[in-house]
Amino acid sequence: MKKKSIKDTSQRKIIFFDLDGTLHKQDIFGSFIFYLIFHLPLNVLLLLLLLPIIGIGLVIKGSTSRWPISLLLWSITFGRTELSLLNLEKKFVGWFRLRMKIFPIVQQKLINYISSNDVDVWVITGSPQSLVEQIYYDYSFFKQINLIASQMERGWGGRILKVRCIGYEKVNQLEMKIGTPLKLYGGYSDNKKDYPLLSFCQKRWLVDVHGKIKKLK
């Protein structure tokens, strides 16, 4: 994927795209969680024990907080070797790609932007980077965008989320890449959780469940 330095962005238009529900219909990370639960049923017992803590964490810290979802991920991967989890990842990617519904109108918008010499496109998603890269590896536009995503890593005998890139965290992550103050030309998303980042966009578009685009005032 192309990379731009902070200096490169000063005279360029910056466009933000969400991924799940925007470039395609399904949620990658949510689907991955259910896939793991189905294929690792013994871990469901640990998940059930931790569900009250996870639920309380989401209520207190908010639905965009990192550690409750990290704990959920850990509970369904604990005790599994990294090799076995990587093999499950590969199987999940194949399963997901067969079922993924692309939103062609939105993807064409993205392709049109990256064909312009004065535009930088940032795809910023709450799904883990390792999954996104495997699912989109053969899409021609993917090597021409800048990707910011959630980060999974090995920890405490399972998988944890080092970064959960949703809500205000998308703002923080983009600021670390291109600096402050943020000034984006436009943004595309299907989710109100992206409003913090969309508030920095001059132009904003909402993508509905059918992949249609509506301009927000």
Automatic annotation (TrEMBL):
UniProt key word Transport: no
Gene3D superfamilies: HAD superfamily/HAD-like (3.40.50.1000)
Origin superkingdom: Bacteria
Pfam family, one: HAD
Stored SUPFAM superfamilies: HAD-like (SSF56784)
Transmembrane segments: 32-60
Sorted UniProt keywords: Membrane, Metal-binding, Transmembrane, Transmembrane helix
Name under which the protein is recorded: Phosphatidylglycerophosphatase C
Organism: Candidatus Pantoea edessiphila
